[in-house]
DNA sequence: CCAATATACATCGGGTTCGAGGTATAAGCT
DNA sequence: AGCTTATACCTCGAACCCGATGTATATTGG
């Protein structure tokens, strides 16, 4: 998740670590702050992997900084991760939101739509949080208001996202144009 | 998060590891499946901490199992974690949902309301996911439909939760009785 | 009767993350 | 001149998590 965010932000423009830190913190830090001890080692191993280059530059404001540039390999890695996200990237909200933040860097609308459809499929499968003797429990079955709330909120949030997903997929994949040589009607 | 779920499920009834696994998977596994290699070490260290006891019993269906019982210390630990959750438990959705699933085990409605109010305060503080030159960007400012969606969804979900939070806090903490006799009609 | 499946538990290695601490530089305040 | 704050980077140990792998038992299906 962190690595994806780093690749994504650097795709737009070169940044130094500190700047990257503030951007990552804005994107995900509200929910899950990123520690220096996580960010800098990540930068280091990504540089070692050849995905980015580090350049010493004098600090504009204070201490000298190390500007980070995405390499061609880095851009390919970003695209690979966007095109073929793991199941966790689809199901975990934090990861999914990160992915969504950079999905525009896939240049094929069809590929973008394919990723959205995976999320759609995930949200459409019925699930329950609690089971009693193997039977899923509905919100109304709980005396507990907190578990009721849990299910209510989960339902409301997924409805909102489903609506957006369906609309966006449609706009990315307009119906097959009714051309003169239709492969399929 | 995992430890909280274990404490919470065992608060209701003794369970063996495998049963625990299915329950934890139902609660959080949809989003973030829990691996055996995570669960069993967690059980082990929680037993070492004195929060639970393990008992060998013959398997009802197949292999012998180790029944897990929450100790008094374990119950106190659960209550401590519910009463004084860390910031991450409040901000991270996965953790927060887990907490919510077991919040009924705090027996004081006031304490429950206090926890809900922390989440409320967190959701009420204005935040932005993206900044341009230090200025937060609104959804309309993006050409990018994915970032637009990101903000739209985040907004919708937090509205749903806010409504629930406010209603539930009110029901847990009825308005101060205006009379000289605080009994309340 | 054999294979597959579900139950049930466990360990190990590799990798990631966090928290705490440390080192500098420059600006602004007192 | 000294203090604080913001910028900017880095390391280390402890903890944690995941995936792979391994062991064993009972039921079900072919």
What can you tell me about this protein's structure?
Two copies of one chain form a homodimer. Chain A is mainly alpha-helical and 185 residues long. Chain A folds into two domains: 2-78, Winged helix-like DNA-binding domain superfamily/Winged helix DNA-binding domain (Arc Repressor Mutant, subunit A); 108-172. Chain A has eight helices and five strands. Chain A has helices at 2-12, 17-29, 36-48, 72-83, 87-91, 93-102, 109-124, 145-172, and strands at residues 15-16, 52-57, 65-70, 131-132, 135-136. In chain A, strands 1-3-2 form a three-stranded antiparallel β-sheet. The first copy, chain A, has a two-stranded antiparallel ribbon with strand order 4-5. In chain A, helix 1 packs across helix 4 and helix 7 runs antiparallel to helix 8 (145-172). Chain A is globular and about 65 Å long. The mean pLDDT of chain A is 88. Chains A and B meet through helix 2, helix 6 and helix 8 of A and helix 2, helix 6 and helix 8 of B. Chain B binds a DNA duplex (30 and 30 nucleotides) through residues 2, 16-19, 21, 34-38, 40-42, 44, 59-66.
CATH homologous superfamily descriptor of the largest domain in chain A: Winged helix-like DNA-binding domain superfamily/Winged helix DNA-binding domain
Q: Count of DSSP helices of chain A?
A: 8
Main sheet summary of chain A: 3 strands, antiparallel
Question: Count the strands of chain A?
Answer: 5
């Amino acid at each position: 998740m962190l690595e994806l965010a780093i690749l994504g932000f650097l795709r737009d423009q070169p940044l130094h670590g500190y700047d990257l830190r503030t951007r990552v913190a804005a994107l995900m830090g509200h929910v899950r702050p990123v520690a220096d001890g996580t960010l800098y080692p990540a930068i280091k191993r990504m540089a070692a992997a050849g995905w980015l280059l580090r350049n010493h530059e004098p600090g504009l404001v204070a201490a000298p900084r190390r500007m980070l540039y995405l390499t061609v390999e880095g851009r390919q890695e970003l695209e690979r991760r966007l095109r073929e996200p793991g199941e966790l990237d689809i199901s975990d909200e934090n990861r999914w939101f990160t992915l969504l933040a950079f999905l525009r860097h896939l240049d094929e609308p069809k590929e973008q739509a394919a990723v959205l459809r995976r999320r759609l499929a995930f949200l459409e499968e019925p699930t329950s949080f609690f089971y009693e003797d193997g039977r899923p429990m509905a919100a109304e079955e709980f005396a507990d208001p907190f578990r009721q709330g849990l299910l209510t909120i989960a339902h409301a949030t997924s409805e909102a996202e489903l609506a957006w997903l369906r609309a966006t997929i449609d706009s990315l994949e307009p119906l097959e144009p009714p051309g003169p040589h239709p492969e399929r009607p």
